[in-house]
DNA sequence: GTCTTTACGTCAGTCATGTTGACATATATC
DNA sequence: GATATATGTCAACATGACTGACGTAAAGAC
């Protein structure tokens, strides 16, 4: 570290700004996951179950391999969690129409209810943050977050067209 | 769900916007932690070690209970990880000056080197995202992220005074 | 109609990281 | 001297990740 850390040194400003970003992400993620975790514990589930429920709710009829791609975990890790959710009636599997090897995943009513209960807290957190920050800040937030995400997954967040606001 | 989901229904827009926020946070965190995780694996360490190294590097001389407050884990969880880092020469402990029960934590040279190696990738990710998004977007990002963080921890991110940009 | 690939599941074992509860020690404080 | 605090430690446990190997059914290629 050869940088001299004084308030007038732009290298220090930059370093400080970058570290604040790192910490914002850490604290936001920590607090963002804490509420759902507490609810999940009542069901004997963990954060991994939440992720599965969330993405299946978001993409009804998605395949197991779609889910593996999103979560970036091994199929063994997924299969335990997914198996529990199917067995306990939160998720259903049905064979694909074109490709019957696939198992298309969907939430049951019970699964939808839990998804809503879990995500509601997180939506409320975002709603508050967006409201307090304002529309312009939300655009900035989106831009920076997209830049943090690996290029391969940015296409999951389409730019909003004229219908959007 | 009684909302009718059409592009002209503001409730749908809001729901979609909130879900995008949730997903941005998930993907950003997933990708943000992946690179350091790979480096840590070479040392036989995990993400928990990174968090300890990061915050001790950021706050030299911090106490164990400071660290517990930030990480929100139990002291047993911390003590295993911290013990390894001390034993392997990445962190030193020395008694507090006023209160000799405390063990003030600091990175050794070895610890500083690892911290830099790990955080460098994350800083680079933020630097790229900030550069592409622009200064105004960064301000928006900060505002929204602060709003996501529990009120108790927002004071960790002081507003920048006139010296700041 | 075989052959290969793909989608998915499963078994066995391991590791990292979190938990609770109880207890120990040194120091600070009233 | 009694109590509270900062820290560490032991034992036991759960979750969720991993690797590697093997199995099955269906799709796709030749």
Automatic annotation (TrEMBL), chains A, B:
Enumerate the PROSITE patterns for this protein. HTH_MARR_1, HTH_MARR_2
Q: Which residues form the HTH marR-type domain?
A: 15-150
Q: Pfam families, from UniProt?
A: MarR_2
Top-rank taxon, per record: Bacteria
Q: Which UniProt keywords apply?
A: DNA-binding, Transcription, Transcription regulation
Q: Write down the InterPro entries for this protein, in alphabetical order.
A: ArsR-like_HTH (IPR011991), HTH_MarR-typ (IPR000835), MarR/SlyA-like (IPR039422), Tscrpt_reg_MarR-type_CS (IPR023187), WH-like_DNA-bd_sf (IPR036388), WH_DNA-bd_sf (IPR036390)
**Record protein name field:** MarR family transcriptional regulator
The species is Magnetospirillum sulfuroxidans
The record lists the lineage as: Bacteria, Pseudomonadati, Pseudomonadota, Alphaproteobacteria, Rhodospirillales
């Amino acid at each position: 570290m050869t940088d001299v850390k004084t308030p007038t040194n732009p290298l220090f400003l930059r370093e400080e700004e970058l570290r604040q970003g790192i910490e914002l992400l850490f604290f936001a993620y920590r607090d963002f996951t804490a509420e759902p975790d507490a609810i999940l514990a009542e069901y004997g589930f963990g954060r991994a179950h939440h992720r599965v429920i969330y993405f299946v709710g978001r993409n009804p009829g998605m395949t197991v391999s779609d889910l593996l791609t999103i979560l970036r975990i091994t199929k063994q890790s997924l299969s335990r969690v997914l198996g529990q959710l199917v067995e306990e009636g939160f998720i259903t599997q049905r064979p694909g129409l074109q490709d019957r090897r696939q198992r298309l995943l969907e939430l049951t009513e019970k699964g939808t209810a839990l998804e809503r209960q879990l995500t509601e807290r997180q939506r409320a957190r975002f709603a508050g943050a967006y409201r307090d920050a304002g529309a312009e800040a939300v655009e900035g937030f989106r831009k920076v977050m997209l830049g943090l995400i690996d290029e391969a997954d940015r296409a999951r967040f389409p730019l909003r067209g004229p219908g959007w606001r």
